[in-house]
Specification:
The structure is a homodimer.
Chain A (H helix, E strand, L loop, with lengths): L10 H14 L12 H8 L3 H14 L2 E4 L3 E4 L3 H26 L3 H15 L1
Antiparallel strand pairs in A: 1-2
Helix pairs in contact in A: 1-3, 2-3
The structure holds a DNA duplex.
DNA sequence: ATTATTGTACTATCTAAATAATACAATAAT
DNA sequence: ATTATTGTATTATTTAGATAGTACAATAAT
């Protein structure tokens, strides 16, 4: 299937974002075993080294841990996952309003623009 | 002052974003003369070549135009500026909801989370 | 015991981006 | 006329990232 990656940011960062999101959104469950580095590299269509880098960075963040030869697993610390989810969501909101502000939209305008956009979809 | 740049994306793309936003938000007015390449490079604390690249790309987008030796100017096509502003805003909204969705928040949840966040600020 | 799979490590190569240092032609300012 | 400023072009160097290829130690599976 080959993940959607662009050339504007380092691949390994995009891989991290994607996997982090999949964990947060519970596509992978706490304690679940991840596919191997080589498998994930195949799935995403990237070099195994690049995937390895992404995974080892996620390990530094504490989101996954590896057991020497049995594989790599999602952390079982559900409290941490919940907290991370909230943090990431808040960060998205903050950045979004920041961007809109820089385009010249105050909070009120942004809010009504959202309403309008959502209505148009429905 | 030195603009806020990170190492996660090419500098010239970040420069483009910044200048594009400043134009859209009317920090620079249509027809107004931009500081010279060298000046802007100093202001942003980047290499003149990098700034040159950003500006020539913005020129390809039609946002600015250069007159051989008198300098570089903001386009006078206000219609285009207005349209670009709307497009960029819509794109921000779309991406934001996309990101939130990938974190596991549906539109409704995202909306109420926004309300909650804005209230907390006030 | 043997085999296959695991994460990990290492070296080499290639490319894009950023920087540095100049240079030049056109023209506005003097 | 001379000077300074403009955008632009060129060459070289450095660095980070991506890829390719290979290797190894630990251990689960057989």
């Amino acid at each position: 299937m080959s993940w959607e990656l662009d050339n504007d940011r380092p691949i390994y960062l995009q891989l991290m974002d994607r996997i982090r999101q999949d964990i947060i959104a519970s596509l992978y469950r706490p304690g679940e075993k991840l596919p191997s580095v080589r498998e994930l590299a195949l799935i995403a269509s990237v070099n195994p080294n690049t995937m390895q880098k992404a995974l080892s960075e996620l390990e530094r963040e504490g989101l996954v841990y590896s057991q020497r030869t049995s594989g790599r697993f999602i952390t079982e610390d559900e409290k941490m996952l919940k907290q991370l989810k909230d943090e990431l969501a808040f960060e998205q909101i903050r950045k979004f309003f920041e961007q809109m502000k820089q385009l010249g939209f105050q909070e009120e305008e942004t809010l009504s623009l959202i309403q309008k956009t959502l209505k148009r979809e429905a």
